[in-house]
Amino acid sequence: MTNAPPTSDPHQVPTWEEVAESHGRFLYTVAYRLTGNHDDTQDLVQEVLLRVQKGLATYKPGNFEGWLARITQNVFLDQVRAKKRRPTEALPDDPDRVLEGAPGADIALDHAGLPDHIQDAIRSLAPDYRSAVVLADVVGLNYNEISEALGVPVGTVRSRIHRGRHRLRELIEVTP
Amino acid sequence: MSAPDRELHDQLSAYLDDELDATERTEIEAALAASAELTAELDAVRAARELVRSLPDVEVPAGFRFVPTGHSETAPVTSLADVRTSAKRRRTAAARNESWARKAAWRSVVAVAAAFALLVGAGSIIPGVEVVPAVDDLVRVHTAAATELMAMPPAEAAPTMPMPLDDGKMLMVDMSGDAPDLGAELPLMGGYEDDDYVHLVYGAEQQYLSVFRQEGRLDGDELDGATAMDMDDATAAYSLERDSVKVLVLEQDGMVYTIVSDDAMVDKAMGMTAMLPPDDDNFVVDAFENLGGALENLGGLF
Q1: Tally of domains within chain A
Q2: Cβ neighbours, 10 Å, residue B99
C-alpha cells in the first residue's frame, strides 16, 4: 500500500495520469473485489474519482490508498443501499444473513481456490461483510482503521470479518 | 449457538490477525486448547484469509481511464476551488436561462430558514447589536464540514460522534440515522455551538447545506455583494454568492441566520419543491417539527 499522495512534490497538484499510474490498479482492484464485475467497477471508480476531486483539497498527508479505499467502500455501500432503497435497514446480526443471496449457491466447490471462484464467493457476501473482508484482506487495513472507515465499533469489525471469512470458507470449501 | 459462544467465535479472526489484547488472547488460547471445533474453525478462517490475500491485482481493461468524465488525463487533479470555479461557470450559463424552478428552490431554502428561525428564535427577541456575518469564513467552515462528511461512513453505520474541523471547531455528527429528515430529503447530519455561532449541517447523497445562527441585528449594507430580498417574516434578507456557493442571510426575532449551500444542494431543494409547494404552509410546519426532533436528537447542544 502506498502512503504518499500521487506526486513527488506534496505541494504540487497531481495530474489524473499520475493518480492512475500510482494508484489506479489498487483502486480498480478494491472496486472490483467489492462489485465483482467490470461494469460496476468502472462506475464505482468514476464516482470515487469525482469524490477524490472534491476531497483532495482537504486531504491530509498520510495513508493515501487507505483514504482511497475508505472513499471507495463508502461509495460502494451508498450505491448498494440506493439500489435496495432501504437506507436505514438494520445491519444483519444473524450469521445466517451474511450471505447476500442466491448467487453464492451455484459456486462450484470443486473449483475452490481459483481466483474467479474466490471472487464469486466474496461477491456472495452481504455488502457490509464484503466491505470488512476486502478492507482487511485486500486493502490491508488494521481493525481500528476498518472501524473508522466503516463507522462501526471494533467489536463489530471483528464479527463481520470473522463471519465473512467463515462464510467464504463454507462457499469455497477451503482445505485447511 | 449462545451469545457468549458466538462472541468467542467472532474473536477468532481477530486472534488470527493479532488484534486482541493480552487478556482476550489468553482467553481465546484457553478456549482453543479445550475445543477441537474452535481450533478447526480457526484453521478454516486462516485458510480463507490466505486465499483472499493471495488474489492477484485485477487487470485494468485496456481503454479504461482514471479520469472523471469530462477531464483531460494530463490536467491537474483539481482542487475544491477549481471545482467551485467550474461549477460557477455551469451556473452562470444556467443563470442566463433561470427557471421558475430555481427561483422556487430558493424560496424553499428561505422557508427552511424561516422554520429554523421560528424554532430557535421563538420568544427570545433580543435587540442585540448590529452584526455582519463573516460570510467568507462561514463558507470555509461549511466547505470543510461538507468535505469531511463526504468521507464519513454511511449514515446509519455509526453513533453520534465528534468530528474536528481545521479551525478548531468540533462538529457533532449524528450518524445514527435517527435524525429526522427535512422534507424527506435533508437529514440533519450534525452541528455545534461555540461563542460565535450555532452551526447545523443538513445533507443527503453527499451534498450538504449549513445553517449558522448568531444573535444580533443584521447590517445588510455591509454584506459584500449582497442583494436584498423580500421575504415574509424576516426583518431583512439578502442573497449573495461566493464562487459556486449560494449564501442567504436573514434576520428574524433578533437572530441572524446565514444559510450556505452549494449549487447541487439547491437542486436538492428543487426536489423538495416538487414534493411540497413552497407556498404551502404545511412545508413550514413539517420543517418546524423535523427540526424540533433534530435538535432533541442532538440534545445538549442547544
Answers
A1: 2
A2: 10
Residues paired with B203 in a beta bridge? B208
B198-204, strands of its sheet edge to edge: B161-164, B170-173, B188-193, B198-204, B207-215, B255-262, B245-252, B236-242, B227-228
Single-letter amino acid code for the residue at B234: A
Residues making up chain B, counted from first to last: 302
Q: How far apart are CA B126 and CA B253, in angstroms?
A: 7
For B147, name the nearest residue in chain A, comparing CA atoms only.
Answer: A55
Of A65, A90, A115, the residue that ends a domain is A90
Task: List, in order, residues 6 or more apart from B70 with CB less than 8 Å away.
Answer: none
- Give the residue carrying C-alpha cell 475544491: B80
pLDDT digits (tens, 9 = 90+) for A133-147: 999 999 899 999 888
Say how far apart CA A96 and CA A99 lie, in whole Å.
Answer: 7
Residue B120, φ and ψ in degrees, nearest 5: -85, -15
Chain A positions in Cβ-Cβ contact with residue B67 (cut-off 8 Å): 16, 20, 49
**Assembly ipTM:** 0.76
Nearest CA in chain A to B63: A42
Contact B151 A56 (CB under 8 A): no
- Nearest partner of A146 among A69, A44, A63, judged by Cα: A69
Q: What is the mean pLDDT of residues B34-42?
A: 92
Closest of B208, B94, B290, B52 to residue A119, by C-alpha: B52
Same-domain status, A74 and A135:
no
How many Å apart are CA A93 and CA A146, to the nearest integer? 18
Can you give the CATH number for the domain in which A36 is found?
Answer: 1.10.1740
Query: Which of B58, B69, B173, B174 to mutate against chain A (most A CBs within 10 Å)?
Result: B58
Domain that holds residue A165: 97-176
pLDDT, one tens digit per residue, over B143-168 is: 877 776 666 655 443 344 445 554 55
